[in-house]
Backbone:
């Protein structure tokens, strides 16, 4: 992207079956420094990274995680095969976008939870925000941008029942009813930066951007 280089975990360089990415972060960081020293600009970084030993290693494990999207049994069998074949499979498994898995209200079936005996109190989302120690200035610009809030109170409400009010772990999204009717209220100060809304929104109208001043959660005491 213009003016920036993506390295390490930000570039998705984790070796999934090994659950190891520190070495890739260090490699990519060193390569990025060499690239800037040689060229003075980020252009050409993507091609350099893809042609490096970093991508050579990741190509061998490219099919591990996508395999489990097709079920546990398929994932285990696929993992065994990929381990034996050392990533030399002539195919690359593809996955669909996460938001496409949401079912509309008229076709979704309510799960049967009668077999679960709940003895614990319900999850308190605001308590979770407290333990995450998230901090945002109350007057800073909202970093959760919704391109069309009318969809939230019309189409999304009737088709999906506003899933953002449920999948957000911090209660950031609320549908508030006042004298003018329902409206979307964004409690951006509660955001714990999980980016679920950006990924799971069925209409892809929510855009998570970096908040002003680097504010956000602090999990060190969780």
Residues:
């Amino acid at each position: 992207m213009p003016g920036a280089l993506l390295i390490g975990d930000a570039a998705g360089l984790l070796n999934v079956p090994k659950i190891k990415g520190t070495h890739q972060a260090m490699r990519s960081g060193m390569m990025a420094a060499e690239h800037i020293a040689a060229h003075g600009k980020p252009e050409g970084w993507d091609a350099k990274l893809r042609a490096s030993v970093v991508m050579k290693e990741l190509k061998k494990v490219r099919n591990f995680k996508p395999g489990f999207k097709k079920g546990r049994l398929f994932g285990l069998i696929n993992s065994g095969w990929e381990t034996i074949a050392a990533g030399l499979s002539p195919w690359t498994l593809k996955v669909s976008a996460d938001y496409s898995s949401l079912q509309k209200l008229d076709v979704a079936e309510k799960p049967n939870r009668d077999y679960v005996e709940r003895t614990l109190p319900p999850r308190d989302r605001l308590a979770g925000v407290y333990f995450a120690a998230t901090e945002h200035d109350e007057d800073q610009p909202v970093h959760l941008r919704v391109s069309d809030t009318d969809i939230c109170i019309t189409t999304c409400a009737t088709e999906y029942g506003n899933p953002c009010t449920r999948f957000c772990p911090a209660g950031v999204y609320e549908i508030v009813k006042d004298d003018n009717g329902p409206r979307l209220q964004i409690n951006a100060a509660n955001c714990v930066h999980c980016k679920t809304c950006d990924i799971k929104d069925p209409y892809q109208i929510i855009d998570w951007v970096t908040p002003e001043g680097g504010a956000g959660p602090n999990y060190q005491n969780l």
The beta strands are 144-146, 173-178, 181-186, 206-208. Residues 22-39 form the longest helix (18 residues). The chain has two domains: 8-96, 125-221. DSSP finds ten helices and four strands in the chain.
